[in-house]
């Protein structure tokens, strides 16, 4: 099993981005496999989006809902998606997380609008 397969099978992954001064900031997120990358979905105005826009270096590790890792972190490179890719990622999230995924996406769309969330694609290093 590859690192990508292992991470994509997890319910939550710990996405770690880095501030300008090098300090790590970790957040548990839902993740799905998107071809040869791992895809996550988040609000467009979050700190992780700003940090990825500045520098795409990230690490990803399997974790629980509270962000406690239960596996090794893997380095990767993250890129922010455009509107159509983000829409496709939301569809993948709905498929994997079923009812709770649909409800979360609906609530987010009602609060923030369609442009209020963004997809992130992560290429993990094997």
UniProtKB/TrEMBL annotation:
It comes from the Bacteria. Keywords: Oxidoreductase. The keyword Ribonucleoprotein does not apply. One of its GO terms (molecular function) is coenzyme F420 binding. This is Pyridoxamine 5'-phosphate oxidase N-terminal domain-containing protein. Residues 6-81 form the Pyridoxamine 5'-phosphate oxidase N-terminal domain. One of its GO terms (cellular component) is cytosol. InterPro entries: F420H2_bilvrd_red/Heme_oxyg, PPOX_F420-dep_Rv2061_put, Pyridox_Oxase_N, Split_barrel_FMN-bd. The keyword Oxidoreductase applies. Pfam families: PNPOx_N.
